Structure formats: C-alpha cells, structure tokens
Amino acid sequence: MALLLSVLAVGTVLGGLPWLAARVRRRGIGGEVLGPFEEMWHPAAVRARQEIDVQVELRVPAPSPGDPPADPRP
Fold this sequence. Notes:
Layout: H1 2-27, H2 30-41, H3 43-57
Helix pairs in contact: 2-3
C-alpha cells in the first residue's frame, strides 16, 4: 500500500509539472521565482531580463495635435 501511494505521489508531481510550466509561461510569472538562482548562475540572463523589463515599461509617445494618423500596418 505504501509503495502504491509513493508511486501515485511521484506520478502526480511529474504529471503536474508540464501543466505548471505551461501556466507559468502563459502568465509570465516565472521570473520572480527563479530570479535569485538565475542571478547566481547566469548573470547575462539577468541583464537581458532587466533590459526586457525596461522595454516593456516604455510607452509610445502620444501623437501631437495635428499629426497625421499613424499607419496601423507594420
């Protein structure tokens, strides 16, 4: 019985990891959790993450009155 419960517990954890990974990727909440470890083992990734955070916070300036409408196509 104990062996069955152990196998079931390990299977549940291993089965839940892909779901958790997909949720973290979709919501973008993994950076805060892994930040300290990433800073210790991969400092270049930390600098890249900081640059991405700065770019996310930047906003496009509002057009001045009288400017022509912006082209929505890229």
